[in-house]
Amino acid sequence: MAEKASRLVDCGESNEGLSVLRAACSITMSVVGIGMLVLPLIAARCGIVTGTCLFIIAAVLTYMGGLILSKSLSMNPNTPATVIPSFEALGFVAFGRPVGLYFALVVHVMLNGICAGLLVLQASISLSLTHVLTWRLWIVIWIAVGIPLSWVKEMKNVGLLAAAGVTSSISLLVIVIVACVQRLVSEGPPGGYVFTTNEPWVIIGSLSTYIFPFVHAMTCPTIMSSMNQPVKYPIALSIATVLLVVLYGSVMILGYLAFGNNLLNYDTIADDIAPTTGRLPVIGWILNIVIIVVVATHYVVLLSPTARVLDNVVSVVVEKWAVSPRLSRFLVLAARSGLVILQGLVGIAFLSVNKLVTFLGALCAVQISIIIPLISYIRLRSLNGSPVGPLQLVMSSFTIIVSLFVVVVAIFMTARQL
Predict the structure, then answer these.
(1) What is the rounded distance in angstroms from the CA atom of residue 226 to the CA atom of residue 205?
(2) Going by fewer Cβ within 10 Å, which terminus of the chain is more open, N or C?
(3) Torsion angle defined by CA atoms of residues 49, 55, 56 and 60, in that order, rounded to the nearest 10 degrees
(4) Domain map of the chain by residue range?
(5) Which long-range contacts (CB under 8 A, 24 or more apart) does 328-337 make?
């Protein structure tokens, strides 16, 4: 999931840096999260055959985008022997400070959007376990819980949470697959499967949603910088992509085969396994408990990068206005608390993990995985004195235009559903 592995999930990083296999592990676990919970639902919406095709297209597009991004990060015209360490630095090197700030903004919107989705998911689980209050009230409660969690500043503490997040993500993946198999064995296939759809807007919107779980490009700068041999990042990415296709594909296909079109009545497959009404099965209890751990650990890790940016902003204000240490501490905590409240308000506005994933897939994931790598690569090739050829330029321009079209359509579809 997004940036949780950007520096914290290393799957056994050594002092000498990441090997290819450890880098592949980091890439894989950095994106396993809430995105996989909506995959069966999207397959139900657009049909299992169409959904599988879109799933493969998303995997290929993000893989190619990751390869292009890794090349771009190695093309710093000022220091050719070093890897560009972040999206902000990439934008700064390629286009200047304003674009660097925009690249950073896209990443932080993505991170905080995922945090909002985690609050919505946590509220849904709370409603499933207790059967009291409402979804929105539970979001408010989890905002109150999230505020003190946002005050965790020490990176060693965040790192411990990230390690727990890796374990819980693996557990979540296994439990969802087990629940699907159990449903198929105990109740049999539900039948009435939809294989395709003739609605083009649904297909376009679904593509952006499928891109979201493959947004490993977010962690590319840090993982690549941490490798023993950054030049071997493409090998690690290839291994990770195969693993993700197998894992995500299993969840998507088994989930749809087990629960069928009934998924369309729920926000995620977790809501079908553990509904908010009626008696919970044992697998539902286990799933809910694991999701609580996943959300709690992932939330702090994903919140941390933006919180640190706010800390830097506050420090500039404190230095400029000569604020007392006590007031400085208060401003830091207030800024972090305000960030959590903003995330909660976004969650209340969407009130759907599925809609948030579709929106973030369109607004941020497509840019991070496809558009930003392409425009950066073209620009850096030019700065290094070897501009791309006419055919490459035409193909890249076409891909960027199509990607922007997908962004607009998916955002429009999400806005209509709010």
Answers:
(1) 35
(2) C
(3) 160
(4) 2-417
(5) 333/151, 335/307, 335/310, 335/311, 336/147, 336/150, 336/151, 336/303, 336/307, 336/310, 336/311, 337/147, 337/150
Distance in angstroms (rounded) separating the CA atoms of residues 144 and 123: 12
| Residue at 327: amino acid letter | L
Cβ(133)–Cβ(127) below 8 Å: yes
DSSP state of 3: G
Query: Which tokens sit at 303?
Result: 């919140």
Q: How big is the CA angle at 242 (ends 241 and 244), to the nearest 5 degrees? A: 65
Angle at the Cα of 108 (from 107 to 111), degrees rounded to 5? 90
Q: Which residues, at least 6 apart from 153, have a Cβ–Cβ distance to it below 8 Å?
A: 307, 311
Residues contacting 114, CB < 8 A, separation 6+: 1, 2, 33, 34, 298, 302, 360
Q: Give percent helix, percent strand, percent coil of the chain, each to the nearest 5.
A: 80, 0, 20
Q: Which residue has the tokens 């557990």?
A: 171
- Report the topology of domain 2-417: Amino acid/polyamine transporter I (1.20.1740)
Classify residue 147 as left (phi > 0), alpha (psi -120 to 50) or beta: alpha
